[in-house]
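Q: What structure does this chain adopt?
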Amino acid sequence: MENASTVRFSSCRGVAFEIKPHANPFAVVTTDQNRYANAEREGTSSRFRLPWDFMRNASKVFPTSIQHSMSRASSHFCDLDSDNEEEEEKDDIFYLEEGGIKEGNEEHSETDEKAILASSASKHSEKPQQPPVPKKRASRLSIILLDQGLFTVYKRLFVLSLFLNVLALVLAATGNFVYARNRAALFSIANILALTLCRSEAFLRIVFYLTVKLLGNSVVPLRIKIAVTSLLQSLGGIHSGCGISSIAWLIYALVLTLKDRDNTSTAIIVVASTILSLLCLTSAAAFPLVRHLHHNVFERVHRFAGWTALGLVWAFIILTISYDPKSRSYTDNLGSKLIKTQEFWFTLTITVAILLPWLTVRRVPVDVSSLSGHASLIKFRGGVKAGILGRISPSPLSEWHAFGIISDGKTSHMMLAGAVGDFTKSLVSKPPTHLWVRTVNFAGLPYLVNLYDKVLLVPLVRGFAYFYRF
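A:
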């Protein structure tokens, strides 16, 4: 296992992200040991700690758990209150010149220790003690946006999808992309189609299944498998990038329409403007700070504003196709024209992808037991394939929550829900007898274990689950 290359992925509350690889993920690294080792190699001055410093910082000298030396788990995926936890005080370390007291197994005389204590006391008495400077508290926005770094796979995909759309938009505006200039509304709908497929549970089940079938062979290089795993767990970047791009294309289409005001109708402009307003509202609700602090607001705005916008897209397509600029009226011969347009087929695909999961919503009996005051175990009837995740809800139009599924694949399956929010806490305090579920479950990070020959699953606290690939 020493020469094996390892990559670590993490999943929390339905959101997955990549953590930078480490040479030895199970190594115990203590900072103090490294400092002392470097000092001994360089022959520089050694350090001495007072006895009460050892007691106060015993957890640093004798670590009780494995310390992670790589990037820590982002609090924006779990608890945003991590900035309330004050960091431990820095060690009070006295630097002694070479020839003085050395650290290790050497014994120190009482005279030397008294001399050091007297020296430190005189230093403190000479200068008045300064009140501790309060540490600047990191804002929630910085935690959400920057905690996992600026170059995660999610953010790269976001930038890539946005860049390609901006490039095409610039070419269209400068007259170098005539097709896009004449079909700006189509490009807006195409971006909506792309972002919908990135969140379609049925579509992603097919993508994950084909990925495992095509790349699950041991002949496929590990780097390719790792890259594909990172990509599939970060499709939200494409979802977000296409959402912003659809707004940009619709604004461009409206500008062109207003310039050619004589060849369009007021109804078309009003409908397009309303769609634009709804898309802007949906994007604003999905902004990380709003989404993670007011998740229910985000979910409801995203759902109902999205449904309203989809209905208006259908109205926009019908009005646009049936309008005759010469007669300034709407024609009745709509069917033959409608099926020949790309806008119709794109919007039809969007509608099917959105409706399909809702057609599988069912209210099912559950058996909820509380293992402790911090978690609940939810049992369902019927087996589920390993690696699949499911969504449950107390009220299907209000909120949905995703959890990993444990199943024997035959008679039953279970979900373990930590009590971290209003809904999950109510599962402990008031266990329900029935919950709403979507019978079309979605594939997540655990499903991709089938890509690799060897895997080590490491369940951790706060809803995380790391897996290492060898």
